[in-house]
Amino acid sequence: MAVSGLGAVLIIHVLTTLQATLATALAEREKAVAIPMVGGAMEAGDVIDAGDLVSADMLATFVHPECILDRRLIEGRTLLERIYPGECIRMERLAPVDSQGGLEALVPTGMRAITLNLPTDARGRASSSRVRPST
User: Fold this and answer.
1) 101: which DSSP letter?
2) Cα 115 to Cα 126: distance, rounded to the nearest angstrom
């Protein structure tokens, strides 16, 4: 009888401990996190400055693990793709720290980009069928 009573006390203790641990974990999960986001739509090649950023509070549960939470890592960086207001900013969407600003940031290191002024036909379309890449 004493053994079963001791077993019951042990089970109650373990369940109480697990319940307290679960309650603590759920409370941590529901904390709000301030996430820096752009205030308006920004295009690829735009440089983000402090005035472009706003903060939004979100529950930590809903924050993507790759979202940048530190504004200092975003300010002064060039975008590699369009970002809309309310979107999380991830490192993969930003040009490297030492890259040039503007559209130069979109061209990979060691590559060059050129533009061609192509003649247009009567409808205003470029006659790209005459352009052939050379090797």
Assistant:
1) S
2) 13
- 0.85 cut: is pTM over it? no
Residue/partner pairs of 54-58 with CB below 8 Å, 24 or more apart: 54/85, 56/86, 57/32, 57/33, 58/32, 58/33
Q: What is the pLDDT of residues 101-134, one digit of tens each?
A: 666 777 777 777 777 777 777 666 666 566 666 6
Q: Considering only the C-alpha atoms of the chain, give the largest distance between any 2 of them, rounded to a whole number of Å.
A: 100
Tell which residue, 63, 61, 50, 60, has the closest CA to residue 89. 63
Q: Which domains does the chain have, with CATH numbers?
A: 29-121 (3.90.1210.10)
The token pair that represents 42 in the structure block? 């920004």
Tokens at 27, concatenated: 């409370």
